[in-house]
Backbone:
C-alpha cells in the first residue's frame, strides 16, 4: 500500500525508543506534543505514517530533530523540507501567493518558478538549498516515470 501522506523514512521504533528514554507514557507524549494519544499509539506501532505536523510536534516534544525520527540519506525534496518544518502546502502557498495545487506541482518538479528566492524564503531555506530540493523532486518524478515505463511499477 502506498502512503503518500506520511513522511518517508519514519522509524516508529526510534519514536518508541526516545519516548521510553524520556520516561514518558503515550498520554504524556501526546499532551506534550499537542496530538491525540491514539495518533501517538498508531504512529509508534507503525500502523500510521505521521504527516509533517505530527512529526515536527513529536520531535519537538522529545527534544530531537525530525531527521532523527525520519532519516534520509538522499538530497531532501521540497516536500520533505516542508514536512520537516511541520508546514502544509496551504501555508507555503499563502506565503507565496499561489494555490496549494501549484505548490504540489512545484514540489513534484512539474513546474519551475520565476521567483525562486521568494519560494526559498517560504520554505525557510537558502535559494541554493531550495533549488537542490526542487531538482531532487524533479529527479524522483523522472525516475518514477522511467520505472513505470520499464514495468517496475514505480513503487516508492
Residues:
Amino acid at each position: 500500500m502506498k502512503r503518500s501522506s506520511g513522511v518517508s523514512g519514519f522509524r516508529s521504533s526510534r519514536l518508541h525508543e526516545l519516548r521510553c528514554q524520556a520516561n514518558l507514557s503515550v498520554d504524556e507524549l501526546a499532551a506534550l506534543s499537542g496530538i491525540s494519544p491514539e495518533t501517538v499509539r498508531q504512529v509508534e506501532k507503525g500502523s500510521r505514517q505521521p504527516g509533517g505536523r505530527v512529526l515536527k510536534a513529536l520531535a519537538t516534544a522529545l527534544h530531537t530533530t525530525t531527521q532523527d525520527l525520519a532519516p534520509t540519506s538522499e538530497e531532501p525534496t521540497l516536500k520533505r523540507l516542508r514536512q520537516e518544518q511541520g508546514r502544509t502546502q496551504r501555508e507555503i502557498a499563502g506565503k507565496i501567493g499561489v494555490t496549494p495545487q501549484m505548490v504540489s506541482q512545484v514540489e513534484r518538479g512539474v513546474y519551475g518558478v520565476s521567483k525562486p528566492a521568494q519560494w526559498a524564503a517560504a520554505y525557510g531555506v537558502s535559494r541554493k538549498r531550495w533549488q537542490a530540493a526542487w531538482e531532487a523532486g524533479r529527479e524522483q518524478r523522472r525516475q518514477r516515470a522511467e520505472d513505470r515505463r520499464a514495468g517496475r511499477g514505480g513503487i516508492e
